[in-house]
Design a protein that fits this description.
Structural class of chain A: alpha+beta
Structural class of chain B: mainly alpha
Oligomer: heterodimer
Radius of gyration of chain A: 24 Å
Distance between the termini of chain B: 26 Å
Largest interface: A-B, 39 and 27 residues
Number of helices of chain B: 28
Number of helices of chain A: 10
Order of helices and strands of chain B: HHHHHHHHHHHHHHHHHHHHHHHHHHHH
Shape of chain A: elongated
CATH architecture of chain B: Orthogonal Bundle
Helix content of chain A: 25-40%
Order of helices and strands of chain A: EEEHEEEHHHHEHEHEEHHEHEEEEEEE
Strand content of chain B: under 5%
CATH topology of chain B: MetI-like fold
Distance between the termini of chain A: 31 Å
Chain lengths: 342, 592
């Protein structure tokens, strides 16, 4: 559906994007993930046409649209702050794209109302000014506005970042539900890894204008391809070389202790009964943070402090100073080439 | 980030222009061409050429370069005295206005003074009542037949009835008329003070005076510098005050320029030109200093949660009483002329002449005669027409220019517009007026071979020019505070540039544009400085009319009644405009 081939974007001497190659399938929920300034929004804006790449091509359905102006692309977009026109009513906002296309009045009216219904906006809300709506309602207007012209693709630029935590989670669900309902190809930009993991069919992790990894949420999280990706997604432990050597010795496996080696918090178990492939070490509980759903322990093991989490199931509960056994599966270690983290 | 930024970065303006031209549709090209012609003409024919011509008058009087004009200036006693007077007035005025202005702000915004709201209204009267009208009001009270003078004379029969004349009088009038800037800018700065810093200082044991000196005033300092320089410039360019109350002994540069410009000899005209040049250079120098200070930046509060000032009660009871007395004396000085003007506008001419208030004689007669006599209402109509047309023209020009600048930042065209339209900011009004007057006393091809002296359009040009910089600054700010995403969203939905501007951008900035136009209308309505040079002889503006009526205040009670009616109507108009712009909700975007 969408193909970016060898995209490069330069702002003066600064290279914002370098050799970006992305393929988005029809109907997919595709997420660009990365820290601020990594190039994810620039890539999105290259797809919508706000930025013309200095090299490379953009294809939609195998048609080269690299030099097609924004207004001719018919790619819907939801902006970070929604960019609702403050001087127009909700109705006028949604009707804008249809008016531009000179759709006749009765059709406009029908389609606006239809779309409003689909995103759960009432007739009364249509008559309101956009400033009178809540954050969630504004988002729905922005989505309705982007979808009413039946674009084949919709791009969303951090649409949840302006909202408070609870609303964010709620709207995240609504967003995914809507995407399923409309079946529209969606490109989504976010810096929030949780958002990316829960929403996406496919994720591309960006860093400093380059692609670090592309894959399903499961792949990205469990098999992070680069040191940057594994650090950016989720919390993680970096193991000291001495610890890696101890694991190698106990499991009788060859390991290069000099390579950066990581393990996720939930892959470390405390006082777990012995199992075939687990290696175990003695440790001391150094600290504990309580999160309700789980505990996060800091455990001194082999001269380093490991972070790990245990479900708050009413069974395991450790105090500072407790001696415990820490075990892990060497298969769950993630190892990278030294100097990988750019 | 807007479209094509990626491509434009790193290219020269020439290359960017070529790319932009290549992308334009024929319609856009025609539009750009028309705009280019209009703005080139406005900037060259109305500003740059007349100013160059004025310089020519100074340096090339006999056809070749000479500095004779400066020699003439040095020999002219009147001119030299006027120069000296201006350079005495400006610094002293800066000090007196500074003292009064700061105290106004502290009284209304910082200290807990009883009746602060009423006091504030009184101190704000200069916003609706200034310039030549204000001088007229003060003269009515303090002048040779003035209320106060007459009262004082009954106590001291030997006193000089012309006491309110000369340097002291000019300084007095201007001190109280020039605090508007303090009441706007300094008061805003005071309101922006983070009150938690005051509480923190108190918590650490600082005294009231110490907090004021070390915590509050330093925050105000950048704004204070700026308003002081503005006051200095106002002092240098004083016009109506020295004309009306300066007497023969205390004339300053601007009245002198006006006198010389209206003489017929060419050497008088070149003297006027050289004086305006000196004034212009001084203004530019001061503005350069101000810009340098502004560039160092204002103190930004680092606090995320600002708390509003809680008025400070003055702890020392003696000081508290003294400050209250001081506050109310200032109030009386500000308010009495306004009240007197309003009251006497209902009085009959006999009582105006004798300065006696008799409520039984009150009527709307003065207002009725204003409406019935052509010569009386004509200046009012003339000023309203000029001001509104000028405000609209300026608004349209600047909106077009700003849209162009917004879309094509850093291009040759937008740089030309940005600097070109700000030229009048650097120049005193009188210099602009004089340059137009000297340049268009003969036909010029770029003015379609029409001499403009004695035509109605000349003053309109003058009004448009002097309002360009303020309009430009404000409108540009409105454009740049626009959320770029709005435009992106519109284009994303398929709208072209013009459609986007018409349907999305313009409606958003329209309220601001209208507010700016209203403020421009307001200040042009009371203009004297520009009108004095360029007014059409049979269609004097309100400022010119009031000035001439004030001059023969002693002998013409009908004229005085008329002045009062003008003043009241102007106050009402200004009050309504300011209320519409600032009163409802807080239009902080229009505070420079």
């Amino acid at each position: 559906m969408i193909d970016l081939k060898g995209i490069e974007v330069k702002f003066g001497d600064f290279t914002a994007l370098k050799d970006i190659n992305i393929h988005v399938d029809e109907g997919q929920f595709y997420t660009f993930l990365g820290p601020s300034g990594c190039g994810k929004t620039t890539t999105l804006r290259t797809i919508t046409g706000f930025i013309e790449p200095t090299a490379g091509q953009v294809f939609v359905k195998d048609k080269d649209i690299t030099h097609v102006p924004v207004e001719k692309r018919n790619i819907g977009m939801v902006f970070q702050n929604y960019a609702l026109f403050p001087t127009m009513s909700v109705y006028e906002n949604i009707a804008f794209g249809l008016r531009v296309k000179k759709v006749n009045k009765t059709d406009i009216d029908r389609r606006v109302k239809e779309m409003a219904g689909k995103v759960d906006l009432t007739e009364q809300q249509l008559a309101r000014k956009v400033a009178e709506l809540s954050g969630g309602q504004q988002q729905r207007v922005a989505i309705a506005r982007a979808l009413v012209t039946n674009p084949e693709i919709i791009c969303l630029d951090e649409p949840l970042s302006n909202l408070d935590a609870k609303l964010r989670v709620q709207l995240r669900g609504e967003l995914k539900e809507m995407q399923r309902k409309f079946g529209i190809t969606t490109v989504y930009v976010t810096h929030d890894q949780e958002e990316a993991l829960t929403l996406s069919d496919c994720i591309t992790v960006f860093n400093k204008g380059r692609i670090e990894q592309t894959g399903t949420p499961y792949e990205i999280y469990n098999h992070s391809a680069t040191e940057f990706a594994c650090n950016f997604i989720g919390d993680i432990n970096k193991l000291e070389p001495s610890f890696v050597r101890a694991i190698a010795q106990q499991s009788n496996r060859p390991m290069n202790a000099e390579k950066p080696t990581y393990i996720r918090l939930e892959r470390i178990h405390v006082n777990e009964p012995e199992k075939g492939n687990l290696v175990a070490f003695e440790g001391t509980v150094q600290g504990r943070e309580y999160f309700g759903l789980y505990f996060k322990y800091l455990i001194q093991v082999q001269g380093q402090v490991l972070k790990c989490i245990e479900k708050n199931d009413g069974h395991k509960y450790f105090d500072e100073g407790d001696r415990v056994t820490v075990s892990l599966d060497p298969d769950h270690l993630m190892t990278y080439e030294a100097g990988d983290q750019a | 980030m807007t479209t094509k930024r990626a491509l434009n970065q790193g290219r020269t303006p020439m290359e960017r222009m070529k790319i932009a031209l290549a992308r334009m549709t024929p319609g856009q090209m025609v539009l750009i061409l028309i705009m280019a012609v209009v703005f080139l003409w406005v900037i060259l024919a109305l500003m740059i050429v007349p100013i160059l011509n004025l310089l020519g008058t100074v340096f090339f009087e006999g056809g070749s370069f000479s500095t004779d004009t400066f020699n003439k200036l040095l020999k002219s006693k009147r001119a030299m005295k006027a120069l000296r007077n201006s350079f005495i007035l400006a610094p002293t005025l800066s000090i007196t206005v500074g003292v009064v202005g700061i105290s106004l702000v502290l009284i209304t915004e910082y200290f807990d003074i009883k009746g602060a709201k009423i006091l504030r209204l009184g101190y704000l009267t200069t916003l609706i009542y200034g310039g030549v009208t204000l001088v007229s009001g003060y003269k009515f009270i303090y002048g040779s037949n003035g209320i106060l003078t007459t009262a004082l004379r009954s106590v001291f029969p030997d006193m000089n009835i012309n006491w309110f004349q000369g340097y002291g009088a000019v300084l007095f009038v201007m001190t109280f008329s020039c605090t508007s800037n303090h009441m706007i800018f300094l008061r805003n700065a005071m309101r922006a003070v983070d009150f938690q810093t005051v509480e923190a200082a108190r918590n650490m044991g600082a005294s009231q005076w110490y907090i004021l000196r070390r915590v509050v005033l330093p925050v105000l300092l950048p704004s204070l510098f700026a308003v002081t320089i503005l006051t200095f410039i106002t002092g240098l360019s004083a016009m109506s005050a020295p004309m009306l109350v300066g007497g023969t002994d205390f004339q300053t540069i601007n009245p002198m320029i006006h006198d010389f410009a209206n003489m017929t000899t060419s050497s008088a005209k070149s003297l006027a030109a050289v004086l305006s040049l000196i004034l212009g250079l001084a203004t530019m120098l001061l503005l350069a200093v101000m810009t340098a200070i502004e560039r160092r930046g204002h103190y930004m509060s680092v606090s995320k949660v600002k708390t509003k000032i809680i008025k400070q009660k003055i702890t020392n009871p003696v000081v508290n009483v003294l400050v209250h007395i001081y506050a109310y004396v200032l109030f009386v000085i500000y308010v009495i002329p306004v009240i007197m003007i309003v009251l006497f506008s209902f009085s009959d001419t006999v009582h105006i002449q004798s300065r006696q208030l008799d409520f039984s004689t009150f009527s709307l007669e003065n207002y009725r005669s204003l409406l019935s006599a052509n010569s009386a209402y004509r200046p009012f109509v003339v000023s309203i027409l000029y001001s509104s047309v000028a405000a609209v023209v300026v608004g349209l020009l600047v909106v077009m220019a700003c849209r162009y600048i917004q879309k094509r930042r850093h291009s040759i065209g937008s740089n030309f517009l940005e600097y070109g339209l700000m030229i009048p900011w650097l120049l005193p009004t009188t210099m602009i007026a004089l340059s137009l007057m000297l340049n268009y006393n003969q036909p010029r091809w770029y003015m379609f071979n029409q001499p403009l002296i004695g035509t109605l359009i000349l003053l309109l040009f003058g009004y448009v020019i002097i309002k360009l910089p303020f309009t430009m600054r404000m409108t540009k700010a409105a454009f740049f505070s626009l959320d770029n995403a709005l435009e992106d969203a519109s284009r994303n939905m398929g709208a072209g540039e013009l459609y986007t501007f018409r349907r999305v951008i313009f409606p958003v900035i329209l309220p601001t544009v209208m507010a700016i136009a209203a403020l421009n209308f307001n200040s042009l309505l009371t203009d004297y400085d520009m009108s004095a040079f360029l007014y059409h002889p049979t269609n004097p503006t309100l400022g010119v009319k009031i000035k001439s009526l004030t001059e023969d205040m002693g002998t013409n009670p009908n004229g005085m009644a008329l002045t009062f009616v003008y003043a009241v109507l102007m106050m009402i108009i200004s009050g309504v405009v300011l209320y519409l712009v600032y009163g409802r909700g807080n239009r902080d975007d229009l505070k420079e």
